[in-house]
């Protein structure tokens, strides 16, 4: 399995391209913006975007769908039934699916948004805006923040310390790094 | 990306060394493994999708190396020359770097968090989207570097120089800074508070 990282200055968001060595069908996580660099990354590695995973419905994670869906015949997966008029295959808490030959498990971690999913592929965790290097996602109320912290505590912190974390914004990290240095989690 | 295969030693959670059944700590022939890796790094100067954690590397010339998706966590590097290297999506967290030079490197999406740096230099480098959170640094030089979106949150920085750097969106939230210089750098575009991060 290969993971490619793409950063877009539009929304300052991260998009992840995941596929098998040698190309073929691939997964794209959170296409916040579709630009020529991302297209080149996909095509130069002989990938075809068969599946798109969205961590949540906010525009900085979904805007790229408009162009992507004109280029590729992709299936979209998220926790909402529709995103930007595109029909979505709904994943719920605990869903496990096999996409592009890669097993993906989804966990619902509400708080930043009600539809926030994190995706686990082997020992890589794609956390969207739930957990980022040094902080947790923003919330609209103290209740939502409590819900987010509790969900992270119950669903993410018990994972293996070596888990690699690929967030929707900012740098990659690992679960143990976050346990040690994430000030938001120290309040847990 | 390296394969996420666990060490087959009982109760060991480390990832195994690429193409081995155990992690480096539990390898039967550590010396040979180490030798092979050093040979590859110094001769071929290119390594992709490779995992070898807890290793010790002394007095090596790894200049102009290209590392992609490598994992060298909990490693020790002493007197290692990484000058002009290209490091992408690689993990060096909780490692120790003493007297190492990383001058004019390109580091993208890589993780050095929780590491100890003593007498090291990253001057003239492009260090983009890289994670230095929680590092313990003493006598460290980032002069003339682009540190766009790089994260130093919760880091302990003692005698660290960021002269003439691009610090746009560089995160220093909750960092402890003693004798840190931002001379000629755009520190007003860096993030120092929770409000800056929003």
Tell me what you see in this structure:
The complex is a heterodimer of chains A (about 190) and B (about 200). In chain A, strand 11 and strand 12 (about 125-130) form a beta hairpin. Chain A has helices at about 35-45, 60, 65-70, 140-155, 175-180, 185, and strands at about 1-10, 15-20, 25-30, 45-55, 75-80, 80-85, 85, 90, 95-100, 100-110, 115-120, 125-130, 130, 135, 165, 175. Chain A contains six helices and 16 strands. Chain A has a single domain (about 1-185), classed as Ribonuclease Z/Hydroxyacylglutathione hydrolase-like (Metallo-beta-lactamase, Chain A). The longest helix of chain A is centred in the last third of the chain and has 14 residues, at about 140-155. In chain A, the strands form four sheets. Chain A has a six-stranded mixed beta sheet, covered by helices on one side. Chain A has a six-stranded mixed beta sheet with strand order 9-10-11-12-15-16. In chain A, strands 6-7 form a two-stranded antiparallel sheet. Chain A is of the alpha/beta class. Chain B has about 200 residues and is mostly beta strands. Chain B has a domain at about 70-195: E3 ubiquitin-protein ligase SopA (Pectate Lyase C-like). Helix content of chain B is about 10%, strand content about 30%. Chain B contains two helices and twelve strands, in the order H-E-E-E-E-E-E-E-E-E-E-E-E-H. Chain B has helices at about 30-45, 195; strands spanning about 45-50, 55-60, 65-70, 75-80, 85-90, 95-100, 105-110, 115-120, 125-130, 135-140, 155-160, 175-180. In chain B, the strands form two sheets. Chain B has a seven-stranded parallel beta sheet, covered by helices on one side. The longest helix of chain B is centred in the N-terminal third of the chain and has 15 residues, at about 30-45. Chain B is globular.
Key structural traits:
heterodimer, A: 188 residues, alpha/beta, Metallo-beta-lactamase, Chain A, 6-stranded mixed sheet, B: 198 residues, mainly beta, Pectate Lyase C-like, 2 helices, 12 strands, globular
């Amino acid at each position: 399995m290969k993971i490619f990282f793409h950063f877009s200055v539009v929304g300052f968001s991260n998009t992840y391209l995941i596929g098998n060595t040698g190309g073929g069908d691939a997964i794209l996580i959170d296409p916040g913006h579709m630009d020529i660099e991302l297209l080149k990354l996909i095509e130069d590695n002989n990938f075809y975007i068969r599946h798109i995973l969205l961590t949540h419905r906010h525009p900085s994670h979904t805007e790229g769908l408009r162009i992507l869906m004109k280029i590729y015949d992709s299936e979209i997966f998220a926790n909402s039934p529709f995103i930007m008029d595109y029909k979505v295959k709904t994943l719920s808490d605990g869903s496990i699916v096999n996409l592009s030959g890669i097993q993906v498990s989804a966990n619902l971690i509400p708080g930043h948004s009600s539809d926030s999913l994190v995706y686990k592929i082997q020992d890589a965790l794609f956390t969207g805006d739930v957990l980022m290097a040094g902080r947790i996602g923003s919330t609209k109320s103290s209740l939502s923040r409590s819900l987010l912290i509790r969900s992270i505590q119950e669903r993410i912190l018990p994972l293996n310390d070596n888990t690699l974390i690929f967030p929707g914004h900012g740098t990659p990290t690992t679960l143990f790094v976050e346990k040690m240095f994430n000030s938001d989690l120290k309040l847990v | 990306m390296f394969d996420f295969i666990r060490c087959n030693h009982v109760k060991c959670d480390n990832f195994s060394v690429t193409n081995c059944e155990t992690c480096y700590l539990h390898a039967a022939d550590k010396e040979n493994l180490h030798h092979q890796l050093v040979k590859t790094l110094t001769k071929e100067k290119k390594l992709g999708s490779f995992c070898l954690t807890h290793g010790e590397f002394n007095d090596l010339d790894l200049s102009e190396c290209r590392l992609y998706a490598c994992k060298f966590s909990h490693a020790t590097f002493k007197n290692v020359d990484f000058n002009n290297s290209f490091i992408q999506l690689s993990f060096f967290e909780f490692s120790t770097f003493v007297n190492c030079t990383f001058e004019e490197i390109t580091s993208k999406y890589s993780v050095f968090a929780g590491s100890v740096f003593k007498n090291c230099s990253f001057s003239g480098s492009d260090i983009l989207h890289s994670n230095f959170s929680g590092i313990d640094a003493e006598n460290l030089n980032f002069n003339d570097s682009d540190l766009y979106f790089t994260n130093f949150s919760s880091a302990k920085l003692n005698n660290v120089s960021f002269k003439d750097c691009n610090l746009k969106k560089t995160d220093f939230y909750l960092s402890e800074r003693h004798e840190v210089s931002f001379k000629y750098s755009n520190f007003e575009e860096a993030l120092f508070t929770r409000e800056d991060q929003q």
